[in-house]
Specification:
10 helices; alpha/beta; Rossmann fold; 10 strands; eight-stranded mixed beta sheet; 358 residues
């Protein structure tokens, strides 16, 4: 989950910025599906040229059943990752999740995020600073509509699996009746404003009180300025720090300001209230990026308070944000670079939930 902070930076993608070679994805030896490369067209809009999202389509082997196969589209979390969940030298584990789903008899569409794999950063000539969260939602919307229209797919049985930030996008699309069910993997139950602020607060916990107080004061001012669409008060810590804070804003906030502004002004409870389809909310108890109670349980509560009457909630002890075991240790960003498998119990629960509703 992206967390652009004033004096602290917690970003999944930051771990990928070390120049390491990404692990190579290989289909499982027991694959009961075929894979083809596909290009999903994105139409020209608002003066921008047409472009395309690169993806892979997994289709179960055998004759297509009457009405088509059930299908899944995976919506990734923030930060740049490819269709298999590779982010530089880090393996997020997306391929393990999607291989398990594809082997269970689902058509699976897995797409490269913008600026990775075969997907460009966007339309020709786009300024990366102009790519906000709403643009990413539209990318996912285009992919879901493409999947629903595919000849092998039962369009009434298309499911969304949203991880982290993808768990905010998925209910937006579900509210537009674009799916038959949603799986929330470590999804926020609060606005990203609150999630990011708490991440920064947690990261500052071990600092001296005077430093921690100053950092959080700046963090709140920067987040408020982004949300309100204004310049921050650079003199918030005194004139002597004004130049430093201005540089910090320009280097750490400006590049992702549109993304944050659009997130901070979302009505999360309203989004959740529109979801009427069945949902599976999965949360790791050791996750430090989103929290078991403030996010996982709150998300389930929000959904039940709205139109949704079929909510399955599972809390997994010892699992982190990637649904990988921490072996009793506190979850850290450094741990994300370790070679660990996605938890087998979680994968079994996920496949069973999808299969029961397909």
């Amino acid at each position: 989950m992206r967390a652009l902070a004033a004096l602290c930076l917690i970003v999944l993608a930051a771990l990928a910025a070390h120049g390491q070679e990404a692990p190579a994805y290989k289909p499982p030896a027991d694959a009961r599906f075929t894979t083809s490369e596909v290009s999903i067209p994105v139409a020209a809009k608002d003066g921008a040229k047409a472009w395309a999202i690169a993806a892979s389509l997994n289709v179960p082997k055998g004759e297509v059943p009457e009405g088509g196969w059930p299908a899944v589209f995976f919506i990734s979390g923030s930060g740049i990752q490819d269709r298999h969940g590779m982010a530089g030298g880090m393996d997020i584990g997306t391929w393990e999740v999607l291989d398990a789903i594809a082997n269970a008899g689902f058509v699976v569409l897995r797409a490269d995020d913008r600026a990775t794999g075969g997907t460009p950063i966007g339309p020709e000539g786009i300024d990366p600073r102009e790519i906000g969260y709403h643009a990413l939602v539209e990318d996912a919307r285009v992919c879901v509509k493409w999947l629903r229209a595919h000849e092998s797919v039962n369009k009434a049985k298309v499911f969304l699996v949203g991880h982290s930030e993808g768990g905010i996008t998925a209910p937006i699309l579900a509210g537009e009746s674009l799916c038959a069910g949603v799986v929330f993997m470590a999804a926020p139950g609060r606005n990203m404003y609150d999630v990011i602020y708490e991440q920064v607060k947690d990261a500052n916990a071990g600092l001296p009180a005077i430093t921690r107080t100053a950092n959080l004061k700046v963090q709140k001012e920067f987040q408020d300025a982004v949300k309100e669409g204004r310049e921050p008060n650079y003199a918030i810590l005194g004139k002597q720090y004004e130049a430093n804070l201005k540089q910090l804003w320009q280097t750490q906030i400006e590049p992702g300001k549109k993304w944050m502004h659009e997130h901070y002004n979302l009505d999360i409870e309203k989004i959740h209230a529109t979801v009427a389809c069945p949902v599976f909310v999965a949360q790791g108890e050791a996750d430090f990026q989103v929290k078991a109670v403030a996010d996982g349980r709150q998300l389930a509560k929000n959904l039940l308070a709205g139109k949704c009457s079929d909510v399955t909630f599972r809390l997994y002890a010892d699992l982190d944000h990637l649904f990988k075991a921490c072996n009793g240790k506190p979850s850290t960003l450094e741990m994300y670079k370790e070679k660990r498998a996605v938890d087998a119990t979680f994968l079994k629960d996920l496949v069973q939930w999808l299969t029961a509703r397909a």
